[in-house]
Every structure is written in C-alpha cells, then in structure tokens.
Amino acid sequence: MMKYINKELTIENFRIKNLAKKFTTPIYCYSFNKLKENIQNFKNNFKSINPLICFSVKSNSNTKLLREISKFGLGADVVSAGELMKALLAGIKPNKIVFSGVGKTSKELNFAINKKILLINTESKSEILEIERIAKIKKKKINIGIRLNPNIDAKTLSQISTGKKENKFGVDEKKFLELVKYVKKSKNLDLKCLSVHIGSQILNDDPYGKMLDILDKVIKKSKHVFEYIDLGGGIGIDYNNNNQNLNLNKYSRNIEKFLKNNKSKIIFEPGRYIVGNIAVLISQITYIKEGHKKDFVILDAGMNDLIRPALYNSIHRIIPVKAKSKLSNKDYEFVGPICESTDKFLTVKKFQKLDEKDLIIICDVGAYGISLSSNYNMRPKPFEILIKKSKIKILSKRQKLLDLM
C-alpha cells in the first residue's frame, strides 16, 4: 500500500506530496486494493462456514465507499435509520441488513419494518413490545433477534467493551430465556436469531472461545432452534505494526465445532477489520513549537478530523512523507490546532528531524476516523479520496466554511 520511492512516500504509486498539493491537507486517502484484500481474506478464513458478512456501517458510513463494499456481496449492520438509508442507497439488499442498537425509536422501527430488512436485533423487552405493537397495526410478522449479554471481558479498552454485565448492551441469560418464551408465543414476532457482540479491537482468541461455550449452553436451555447466530464483530487490527493479529483460522475452526450442535447460519458484523487499515490521514505541519522537554509538532489535522487518540487514548503510527537521516534532538508530540489539551495524536522518541510545512501521514484511520469526525471549532471536514486501479476517486469533497454558516 505504502512505500518510499527516492525518499518520498507513496501510496499505491501516487506521491503523497502530489496528492497534498492537488487536494490540500488534511486528506483521508483510501486504498481499494487493501479493501479488496481485507474482504477476500475475511471470506477465505471463514469459507467453510459460509457466513453472511454484514459490514458495520458505523465504522465508516461514506456512501461511495459502502457502494464499493456492496459490490463484494456484503450486507450491512446498521444502528440507526440514517445508516439504514445509507446502506440502501449504496445498493445493499434489504435481506442482507441487520438493525442493531439499544435505542431504536418507533419511527426507526417503522422504517426498518417497511423496508423488509433481514433482522431487527432487539436488546430489551420494551423494544420487543414496541415491535410487536407496530407489527399488529401493520398485520405483519416481523423477524427479530435477541441480543445476549454473555458477561465476558474481551480484555479490550473499557470504552469499547460491550459484553460485560455492567455494559448497556443486550440482556443477561435469565432475561434472555424469559424473552425467548415470550416471543415464541407471539403471533406477530418470529424469533430468528440469537445475537451477541462482546467488544471491539479484540486480538485474543480466548474471549471468542468463551463466548461460543456460553452460547452453546444458553441455546440448549432455550430449547429453540435459531435460524441465525449473529456473532457480531470486534476483530481487531494491528495498529502498532507488531504482527499481533487474531488467528481467524482458529476462530473459524471453533465455530465449526459449535455448529455441529447448532445448525444455524452465522452472521458476522466486521467493520474495523474491513476498513481500519485501508486509509491514512495526510496532514501538513503548520508550526513546530519548542518546549522544555519536547517539541510540539502542530498539524493542520485536529481531533475534529480524528478523535480516536483523544477519545480512547488509541495509538496511530505517524510516518514522515519525506525520509531524512537526521534525528530530532528532542521528543516530538504531534498535536492539532483544536483548543483542547486532549487534541494530540502521539508522542514519539527519536523521530527523524522535521521542518515546518513537512507532510506526515497518520496510519490506519479507515475505521471510526471520518465517521467520528465533527465540525468542532467550526472546522470543515476534510477531503476523502479513494485510489482504485491507478485512478483517484473523490469519496467526499472538503466542506467549505460558507456551508457551515
């Protein structure tokens, strides 16, 4: 995806310097080749279980990018009416769309039911009663799933943990079994799915193994045959570039064992794994401000463009666009222009010497980068471009200040 040619960093053989000159920084730059590689790798690893892969739209909801993803036959996992609209607009078929989330409104549920999507994964009795009320009015039978909270610590960041009992997601085993009994008696609800999602950025096999063991026991207790088992997403990527990755093949074998007792169709909801490492954020150094023990490298990209480091203390590698042999005398702290102390990306020791107006790239920003971006400090959102088959495709143009007024 990226390599240096004559000490100048390139992406898919395009000089980043030229991209910055043409579009002006900051720029989100995506690689179609990397997207294709990730999707094919995911499909190949789980080929034996033939899952329905529903891309997690919250990770990146750019309509044009979703259209590219839909061409690979993927469905969508959505968590709002807006995401559902985007998925449909991108050409994703309704029978490949799953609606998740704890707070779906009556209006959103009505919209999803009218669009005849595959599943609405419910997370409370109140939500089930609301779907049943709407279904009675429409004289329809609605396909639903129930999300189980298995009380598993996925050993990931507390901010993105979703499978522990103190998290707001899903219902515990006791409530799950009660809801199964209730739904099975309903004339307007069809219980199709058991849903689970234990967290995000998971790089360890153990949590998924524990999750499958718990599902096996709960399904036996429920005495219900689920047409679908939705295992959610959460598969992490190697942000630190240290070759730490989840063993997808092992996960697939564990699911095969699970399916020997449970003849269900598996649904996955990957987001980060599909798009996380397909994009970089190109930024220019505005100033280098000398500090006592470190120098502040002030970029034209801020936490409004990429909030993950500020929100999660997450690490995104930073790479210089022009390679130099000389090292800096002091540590560098890469920061943005936002009036917040949390507007910082990374502190690095022994970085190469940088100068004002130099270009850098922030790596692995394809997931929860642009989708979490904002206009904080009244800053326009940046360009998004996709490099596909030696051509540049504009995914979204930079906002203009007048548009924000």
Structure explained in plain terms:
With 405 residues, the chain is an alpha/beta fold. The chain folds into two domains: 158 residues, Lyase, Ornithine Decarboxylase, Chain A, domain 1 (Beta Barrel); 244 residues, TIM Barrel, CATH 3.20.20.10. 29% of the residues lie in helices and 24% in strands. α5 crosses α6. The radius of gyration is 23 Å and the shape is elongated. About 1% of the residues have low confidence.
Sheet-strand content, in percent, reads 15-25%
| Structural class label | alpha/beta
User: How helix-rich are the residues, as a percent range?
Assistant: 25-40%
β-strand number: 20
Shape: elongated
Alpha-carbon distance between the two ends: 38 Å
Biggest sheet descriptor: 9 strands, mixed
- Reported CATH architecture of the largest domain: Alpha-Beta Barrel
The number of helical runs is 12
- Under the CATH scheme, which class of the largest domain? Alpha Beta
- Spans of 5+ residues with little confidence (pLDDT < 50)? 159-164
Per the CATH scheme, the topology name of the largest domain is TIM Barrel
